[in-house]
Amino acid sequence: MPTFDEYRTLPVADRLSRLRRTPGELDKGIADRDDAELGRRPDARNWSAKEILCHLRDVEELFQVRLHTIVALDEPRILVVGATPGDLAPWRLGGSIPHPLDPDRWVEERQYVRNDARLALASFRRRRAEVLTLLESLAVSEWQRVGIHLGRGRLTLGDWVASLAGHDDNHLDQFHRALAGRP
User: What SS3 state is found at 48?
Assistant: First the structure.
């Protein structure tokens, strides 16, 4: 599984290939499994396969907005998980206003356990197709457009896609472990 930095060195076509494969790999994972099995957590702390599908669906929507923002604006600052309190201050986040991108908060507030895993995957698949349509429409020069990651600094669209590809790998591994009942 390539790291973010390794994905950054791969041709864009390889990064897009990773993104194209993810929905099918998830589909294979849930085939012939019932909702109870997909909703079973491997332990009290780690997410179930269903929760991972919901997370991927919601992160895909987030990345879609990020990518469109980078295409539309010159070097926008992009809100990310793990930003420091100083980085979040201009966003007026912190204190009584919690970080809106907290994945564990999403699990609870969006009631992932009550979601239908197959509908979550269908929604992820639609969003991923839209993201790929956007990315495949870019001119070579547009891949160098930049979004400012609050932790990593200036990242090109190609770097953001490397991040998304790594995110897919990370959660596909977690998904397969959850299906096997391992944390």
Answer: coil
Beta bridge partners of 77: 148
Select the CATH number that applies to the domain covering 4-179 from these four: 3.30.930.10, 2.40.10.270, 1.20.120.430, 1.20.120.450: 1.20.120.450
Write down the residue that tokens 């997410």 correspond to.
Answer: 47
What is the rounded distance in angstroms from the CA atom of residue 16 to the CA atom of residue 94? 35
Determine how β-strand 146-149 pairs with β-strand 77-78: parallel
Name residue, tokens 């930095």. Answer: 5
Spatial CA neighbour of 167 closest among 128, 112, 137: 128
For 89-135, write each residue's pLDDT tens digit.
Answer: 999 998 899 999 999 999 999 999 999 999 999 999 999 999 999 99
Instruction: Dump pLDDT digits (tens) for 24-72.
Output: 999 999 999 999 999 999 999 999 999 999 999 999 999 999 999 999 9
The alpha carbons of the chain give a radius of gyration, in whole angstroms, of 17
Task: Dump pLDDT digits (tens) for 124-163.
Answer: 999 999 999 999 999 999 999 999 999 899 999 999 999 9
